[in-house]
């Protein structure tokens, strides 16, 4: 870990001086646009299977009010069924132009608005206002997964569903886990706060949802230090 820190010393100095974060916020959407496109090609079947369940969650309005948490570039839009009214939330305002492009390519959806806010503080959204919340590759980089899941429960109506797809830590004691520990301090800066060793399944199991279903998937990219993924849903 010390060797990696020394090799990436300029990056850590920039972060210490407050110069890195603004730069990261600017370039990160472009990086995600490339990675999510490749990821969608690998995970298309699984994503379609997961998000096909949204069809049966129509609210009182006759449509599905859907919040995408940490929406990024809108890579999930193509998998949502027609009739969804999509609200997007992300703390990085630089994603908005990518969202506009994604919505223009997915006319089967109704785009509501883009909220610039962290997942831990969604005060701009009313209690029980959402039928569905979608969270993909987000809980790895938030400050507090516990607070985010509390906010998710608040904005979901009773019977509403959180759909998730998150990467988690490698098994403790494995070589892969050791490398995650070595790389994590540097990876957090490269990945805009992404933590490699989170046990996110525990946060979901402890969040007091009435039902949690999840399955594990191997990582889509073997050349990245991110570990296995968990995919599933949690019902309020």
TrEMBL record:
Signal sequence, start to end: 1-26
Methyltransferase type domain: residues covered: 67-164
Lineage: superkingdom: Eukaryota
Keyword terms, alphabetized: Methyltransferase, Signal, Transferase
A GO BP annotation: methylation
Annotated GO MF terms: S-adenosylmethionine-dependent methyltransferase activity
Stretches assigned to coiled coil: none
Protein name (record): Methyltransferase-like protein 7B
Annotated gene: METTL7B
